[in-house]
Amino acid sequence: MIRTWPRLLAVLAVVLVTVPIAPAGATAEPTLTWSVQPADQRGPDGRRWAEHTLDPGRAVTDRLAVRNFSDRAAVFSLKAADGYLTDKGRFNMLPSNQESVDGGSWIEVQEKVTVGANETKVVPYTVTVPGDATPGDHPAGIAATVTSTGGTVAVESRVGFRVLLRVSGTTTAALAVDDLSATYRQSWNPFAAGSLRIRYSTTNDGNVAVTGAGRVTTAELLGLAHHDARSGIEEMLPGGGREVDTRVRGVWGLGPLRTTVSVSPAVRGGAEVTRPGSATVTVWALPWAQLVLAVVLGVLVAVFRILTRRRRRRLVALLARARDEGRAEARSSVGD
Questions:
Q1: Domain stops at, among 149, 167, 185
Q2: How far is it, in rounded angstroms, from Cα 172 to Cα 275?
């Protein structure tokens, strides 16, 4: 038993060397949470975003509130940047390493603000529209950011709100349709119609943010039959675009299918000039299921007719043989 003590002490020494020991009093850094909202002099005023319409060369001062919900004070960097919509339709701001060239560069706000634990600070900012600014929307945003470093990687966390900047002048709401394609999908049930898959891209060619409505009309049988489908178009900023994928059902695919897509823009508050867009594409489709059914039915009819003719011929031959046998029997009876 005494001989085993040196071995146990050696193993214990290895464990103490390989297992890290936390320093006394070390605690995890508390989580920092905050919000940024449009505000008045007293604090957040209930607005979800800030909205300003200005003439070229004019300026306006507004306020924002930074609210620190954490149990420790924090220093936030305040940054303004151009805004854009993501592929999923969510508003976002350009990253800090990308320079703003539009509405974001018109906003002047102090660089940093210190907010105590569970405190709210109101900060003014100024929007100055250049004298040569073009009419329409110039989206931007303001965010309060905190940069944390973990090793050699710096992570910027930001929370902000949207700033809708519109320069007065003629507002134009316009949508264009591009890259229109149609694909017919056959139903292999010969008693059910197929569907037409319509894909296209729509672009905001105006100078204001728009939503829209799309209508798809498909004509077949040389225009004797029509099918309609409708779809909504999510918000698009000037110069932005969306991919739209919709289906027209109940299409039999009897020859050429002429499809027209029409998109109509809509603007909150209206626009002085509105230009809808449209495009047309024609594809050929054949009802293969119905054709196969027709071929099968044709083959069955042909087989039935052949078998019927054979039966008739066999019956005629049997009747003729029976008559011949009856005549032969009658002759033999007369001879006897």
A1: 167
A2: 8
Do 114 and 127 fall into the same domain? yes
Domains in the chain, number: 2
What is the model's pTM?
0.72
189 and 92 within one domain: no
Name the residue range of residue 111's domain. 30-167
Alpha-carbon distance of 291 to 60, in angstroms, equals 70
Read off φ and ψ for residue 325, nearest 5 degrees. -65, -40
Q: Return the beta strands (E) in 69-171 as ranges.
A: 74-85, 91-93, 107-109, 112-115, 120-128, 136-137, 140-150, 153-167
The token pair that represents 333 in the structure block: 């009876």
CA-closest candidate to residue 197, choices 253, 134, 147, 239: 253
61 part of a folded domain? yes
Residue 68 · residue 117 · CB < 8 Å: yes
Residue 334 backbone phi and psi in degrees, to 5: -70, -40
User: Alpha helix locations (H) across the chain?
Assistant: 4-18, 288-335
Profile the chain (336 residues) by mean pLDDT over runs of 10 residues: 42 32 34 94 94 96 96 95 92 92 97 96 97 96 86 78 96 95 83 88 95 92 86 92 91 89 91 93 75 70 81 81 74 66
